[in-house]
Amino acid sequence: MIEVRGVAKYFGRFSALRDLHLTIRKGEFVAVFGRNGAGKTTLLRILAGLSRPSSGTVTIQGQSSQSPQNARGMMGYLSHNTALYGDLTALENLRFYTRLFGLAADDAALVKRIRQVGLMGREREAVRNYSRGMQQRLAIARAFLHDPAILLLDEPFTGLDQIGTEFLKLYLLDAHARGNTCIMAIHDVPLGYELADRLVVIDKGIVAVDVTRAAVSLDEFQRRYRALAEEQADAG
C-alpha cells in the first residue's frame, strides 16, 4: 500500500533521512521507534504529504504522497500538536474540519464523536478552556473524522489523560481489526509492541531493524533497541 524508495531529507547540512526504504502492506500496524532526531517525525510528515523528500519517492497505492486530492484523502494524521482552534468550541472545530474534508456537517454525528472521546457536555465550550488531555482527545476525533484508510500517528499518546489513552488504544486496535493501515512513531516500546504487528527502528536516517512482533519477544526487541542506542551514544 505504501512504498518508500530511497528517501532522503536534508535540513541544511543535517540529514534527517538518508536512502530510506520501507514497504508497508495494506492492513499492517507498524510501530516506528528511534531516538530523538532519528527521523520518525520527518518520515511521517513526508508520508502525509506535509513535507517533500530531498530525494527518493513515496507512493500510496501507486499515487504520489504529494497529491492533495488522492493520496492525502486516504490519510488521517495525528501528532502531539492538536491543530485545534482555541477560540472555537469542540463542535465548531469539528464542523470546520468536516467541511475541509468535504463531508456533510451533521451535528448529531459530530456530537456522537465528541461523546466517544469522553467530552460529552463540553461540546459547546471553547477549546482554550480544555486541559491538555481533553484537547488531545478532541484532536483524535478531528484526525479521524473522514474515517481514513491510513492512520499516521506521531507520538499520539503524548499528553493524553487516562481516558484518552484507553480510547485511543481501543480505537487503534479496532481500526487494525477492520483492516486499516496504521503507522505510529512512538517512544514507549512496551506500548508500541502491544499495539503493532510490525516493529521498525530508524537509526542514522535508515531502517536499522524491521521485524514482525511474532518473530521477536518484547525482551529481545528491547535488547536490540538498547544496543542500537548505546552504539549511537558511543559513536557520539
Explain what you see:
By secondary structure, the protein is an alpha/beta fold. The chain is built from seven helices and ten strands. The protein has helices spanning 40-47, 90-100, 107-116, 132-143, 162-177, 189-195, 218-235; strands spanning 2-11, 14-24, 29-33, 55-60, 63-64, 75-78, 150-154, 181-185, 198-203, 206-212. Strands 6-7-8-3-9-10 form a six-stranded mixed beta sheet, sandwiched between helices. Strands 2-1-4-5 form a four-stranded antiparallel beta sheet, covered by helices on one side.
Task: Tell me the overall shape.
Answer: globular
Average predicted local confidence, pLDDT: 89
Structural class: alpha/beta
Main β-sheet, in a few words? 6 strands, mixed
Radius of gyration: 18 Å
Distance between the termini: 36 Å
- Share in helix: 25-40%
The helix tally amounts to 7
* Total beta strands: 10
What are the secondary-structure elements, in order, as H or E? Answer: EEEHEEEHHHEHEHEEH
Strand order of the largest sheet: 6-7-8-3-9-10
Query: Regarding quaternary structure, how should these chains be classified?
Result: single chain
Uncertain parts:
none
